[in-house]
Please model this.
Amino acid sequence: MRRFLPFVFLPLFSFAEESSKIDSGNTAWMLVATALVMLMTPAGLAIFYGGMSRSKNILNTIAMSFLAFCITSLIWIFWGYSIAFGSDIFGIFGSLEHAFLLGININDILPDSRIPVLVFVLFQLTFAAITVALISGSIIERVKFEFWLIFIVLWVTFVYSPIAHWEWGGGFLSKVGILDFAGGLAIETASGIAGLVLAILLGRRRDYGKKAIVPSSVVLTTLGAALLWFGWFGFNAGSALKADGLATYAFLNTNTAAAVGALSWMFTEWFKFKKPTLLGVASGAVSGLVAITPAAGYVGMFGSIIIGAVAGIIGFVGVFWLKNKLKYDDSLDVFGVHGLNGIWGTLATGLFANPSINPGGKGLFFGNFSQVLVQLGGIFVVILYTAITTAILFFVVSFITKGARVSADEETLGLDEAIHGERGFEL
Model:
């Protein structure tokens, strides 16, 4: 009998050995997803924003997104990742045990998805980079380049990384059960609120409201929107951290909400102004993508359609009514598109989360009213923390750079020539 005992326990040994191995399928998918999200910042967002800026500022606008990715790539591996995903300290931030990626070995894996931890580090790096890059759209055409470069370092360190820890790194929001599949709070709401605060503190462009400010190239903006849409599949479906059915459903929800958002904005604009613009269609698609981000892995098809439809209307109202009503100069409508729809998507997740899609989420329409209260609480905390901390950082960096705004002459000439000595278009 003793001779046969090893064979009795052999399946258990095999299972333990298998669970400690890297899952090549999940890893391959996450490498692709990471590359897709990487494409969103120095290519998709840069072109999307660049096309909406004036021709004399297009290169500076693109550079702000491009450099956001470069700088965040270093800050994240130096200390950002550890603040976000290090051992929890009072539910507020992670320890610095993984600063400079200390303690993370090449063969370390995440136990559930069995992907290398380093792949997860890279995937989360792309999230941090696009979050801070989004903010630039609120302040283009008038901010000092050196101000922006320093602000990136401080904002990723003191705003994005702690909020990411609250939600995904074992912080207090995750402990109370917040639902945010891919970043409706940490990415969309935080960037939108930060952009609004900076736009107000920096002040309006000198010719804002005095002359027409038109995009340099709607063609480029539309191409940028298409690249963002493409990259967003990695953003949302990749957040499943596996190549499985949930990733597939998140992929489907992402595409559906984007398409509905584009149509929703277009028909709203068509009804209001009698002209369905391509810029509106592109902006509506991005609005739908923003709103479905926190809900992609929690809601069913009906939920994604409603979320996308409302997102297009919210984005339109934020751009054409709220901004004019309050008279702030959010240059590329970061708050109107990303901030407001990040809030809507986070709240909608608490309404439409379907436990048959994801057992980890159950919203109001499936019998869990308390989830709405949790979502509202998370929204309030992130808005308050982001607004206060961003304002503090604005004054700190302004002191370092002796002001945040370029001179009147530089703004009139255009930042491409004044700062970079280049032109985006030879006229």
